[in-house]
Design goal:
The structure holds two protein chains of two kinds. By secondary structure, chain A is mostly helical. Chain A is built from eleven helices and no strands. In chain A, α5 runs antiparallel to α7, α7 runs antiparallel to α11 and α9 crosses α10. The two termini of chain A are 36 Å apart. The chains are: A mainly alpha, B mainly alpha.
Chain lengths: 315, 218
């Protein structure tokens, strides 16, 4: 990889880290407006990060090195995933490593590390959160694998850059049943994996319903900031995947200033549209009972299955 | 053009199939009725699309009739039926929701296997969607056998009828209009007869739970 490549990847990392809190801020703001509240400004998450990084850390005496290492693993793995996703340009310098399965399991590595971090201090809530998170992760994995498989079948490759390039070359593919149902399956999995409604409520600390919050309960200060930042970045990763694998138009295919400017504008616009969509959905639906979450994920699984079978039969 | 036609037909057929899966997922008769309404409307849209791509003017009439009979009239009658028998909102299935969703997935796979010889015979651009129509046939049969409430079974039967209409549209671009009219009349009559049955079951047993009909034996 030459200097241009390194600069591209570094720029994407910085942009992703800078955009992620904004996406969450936008979701919260739109949700507040839809609920007739004034709501915090969009840049509130940035202020939260600054506040948390300035604080001291309290660590339970029962905690081992796992507890301390988990935030870095979570943050690192999510950032690596963001480096593989075609957010602004395609193919990326790291495109050779941007395999769909690598991406899914890198994301799961973060989930796994966070679950360990929740279990490690031995608090009841942390363990409960971890066990729930693992249940959901185990159920959403087959659905996400099927959705990915259907995309890969359509493009003839599991490489992200290749899939985006094929869809750009053949716009009709975006309308195919395989694409539409894979998108629906991925959207449901995204809601489950990033702890949004109807699976987890990101706005409360109510102990009976929380999943993500329960795992991070023991964390404080900079470690909490890293975990929160990573979870916002994960949401941005899923949004970018949903936007740029299914509707890749606007991505820069060469490094020209005009192309990059168009790519930046379209990607930010797509993120904005998805954020508003999630906010609207979260306003319209209530949280599911925990025992009904497997049913929702089974729906996602069936959608993935439909996507795969129809990509097979259209081929 | 044939490419677009193939994609549209698979997308439309998948849309029709999805609403049968919604019935397996949601609880409550009102949700089933609206799923049936949407299914019929998507089916009508697909029929109109086949009419456009296949240059078959009669199919436009079939699509319009579908909206009127299955999209408006039957759902309205179903709603009245559901209100009259005041069935409990939760319809308890014999098979739990997650299992029935996975079974539906397996049935769709089975349909793909079953439709293989059909696909080799056909050369129509719509042929890729035929397995989905057969899948809908299986899934709606599964709805009928796995639910206890008579009214849900009626909805399953109506979805079965939609599946046959879908198969006809995809495999042969619809049957002649006269036959189609006869089928509509049959479906309507069948529905009316079943409606009377549901009322009678309700009047006699104070429930539309067909599981309770086992009492007849003793």
């Amino acid at each position: 990889m030459d200097v241009t490549g390194i600069v591209c990847e570094a720029a994407q990392a910085v942009l992703g880290l800078a955009l992620a809190p904004g996406v969450v801020g936008l979701i919260r703001r739109v949700k507040a407006r839809l609920q007739n509240r004034r709501g915090a400004p969009v840049w509130q998450p940035y202020a939260e990060l600054r506040k948390l990084f300035g604080k001291d850390m309290v660590v339970s005496p029962n905690a081992s090195w796992v507890f301390r290492a988990a935030p870095f693993v979570v943050f690192g793995s999510t950032l690596v995933v963001y480096l593989l996703v075609p957010a602004f340009i395609t193919p990326l310098p790291l495109n050779a490593a941007a395999d769909l399965f690598a991406l899914v399991y890198l994301l799961l590595l973060g989930t796994f590390a966070l679950a360990l971090g929740g279990l490690d201090p031995g608090s009841a809530f942390g363990g409960m959160g971890s066990s729930r998170e693992m249940t959901i992760a185990a159920l959403s994995e087959p659905a996400i694998a099927l959705a990915m498989l259907s995309l890969a079948l359509g493009a003839g490759s599991t490489n992200l850059g290749e899939i985006a390039a094929r869809t750009i070359a053949n716009p009709l593919a975006a309308l195919s049943a395989g694409h539409v149902f894979a998108f629906a399956a991925l959207f449901i999995v995204m809601l489950a994996e990033t702890g949004r409604l109807p699976v987890d409520n990101p706005a409360t600390h109510l102990e009976l319903t929380m999943i993500h919050e329960a795992m991070t309960l023991e964390y404080s200060g900079p470690c909490l900031a890293l975990i929160e930042w990573a979870s916002w970045l994960k949401l941005t990763v899923f949004f970018t995947l949903a936007a740029n694998l299914f509707l890749p138009w606007g991505l820069a295919t060469s490094l020209t200033p005009a192309g990059l400017a168009i790519a930046a504008v379209t990607t930010v616009a797509k993120l904005g549209v998805l954020a508003v969509a999630v906010a609207v959905i979260e306003t319209r639906i209530a949280k599911l009972r925990l025992f009904r979450v497997p049913e929702l994920l089974a729906v996602s699984f069936v959608l993935g299955l439909l996507a795969v079978t129809s990509s097979f039969s259209v081929r | 053009m044939d490419d677009v036609f193939a994609q549209v037909s698979v997308l439309g057929a998948s849309g029709v199939l999805i609403f049968a899966i919604v019935v397996l997922w949601r609880h409550g008769v009102m949700a089933y009725i609206s799923a049936f309404r949407w299914q019929s409307n998507v089916l009508a849209a697909l029929t109109a699309a086949v009419a456009y791509f296949g240059h078959d003017r009669d199919l436009y009439w079939v699509a319009a009739l579908m909206v009127v009979v299955k999209g408006v009239a039957i759902p309205r009658l179903l709603t009245r039926l559901a209100r009259r028998v005041a069935t409990s909102r939760e319809a308890e299935p014999f098979v739990n929701t997650a299992t029935s969703l996975v079974l539906a997935g397996l049935l769709i796979l089975l349909a793909h296997a079953a439709a293989r010889p059909l696909l080799e015979m056909s050369s129509a651009p719509t042929r890729a969607a035929i397995p989905l129509a057969i899948g809908l046939l299986f899934v709606s049969l599964f709805v009928i056998v796995s639910r206890k409430k008579a009214i849900t079974q009626v909805i399953g039967f109506l979805m079965l009828e939609n599946a046959i209409a879908l198969l006809a549209v995809l495999a042969t671009y619809g049957v002649p209009l006269v036959v189609e009219l006869g089928v509509f009349l049959d479906a309507m009559m069948g529905f009316l007869v079943m409606q009377i049955f549901v009322y009678d079951i309700h009047d006699t047993f104070d429930t539309v739970d067909v599981d309770a009909l086992n009492r007849l034996k003793h």
